[in-house]
Amino acid sequence: MTLFDLTGFQRDLLYILAGFEHPTGQQIKTELDAVPEYTPSDTRLYSNLDALAFQGYVKKGTRDQRTNSYALTEQGYEALAARQGWEHTYLPFPSPSQS
């Protein structure tokens, strides 16, 4: 499986994880809730985090008896970098209007 096989929501979760050091699910949910287009249920959030962990993109850890934490794996970082490289072939930065 590659990053191209993931849903947009799953890719967005990886980007959020890249910006934090071992966030909890609640911290990730808070980030998503700040974006009007996202109002994921807890079930959707946690099932997607579990799927990403199963696929090797995310490491799921335990912060305490009730709280899990999440982090990108090396595979996750590499997949995001490859995805960004592919995206930049079609939308290079800065855009022509900015140069």
Question: Summary?
Answer:
Helix content is about 50%, strand content about 10%.
List keywords for this structure.
mainly alpha; 99 residues; 2 strands; Arc Repressor Mutant, subunit A; 4 helices; two-stranded antiparallel sheet
Structure write-up:
The chain contains 4 helices and 2 strands, in the order H-H-H-E-E-H. A two-stranded antiparallel sheet has the order 1-2. The chain is mainly α and about 100 residues long. It has helices spanning about 10-20, 25-35, 40-55, 75-90; strands at about 60, 70. About 15% of the residues are buried. The chain is globular and about 50 Å long. It has a single domain, classed as Arc Repressor Mutant, subunit A (Orthogonal Bundle). About 50% of the residues lie in helices and about 10% in strands.
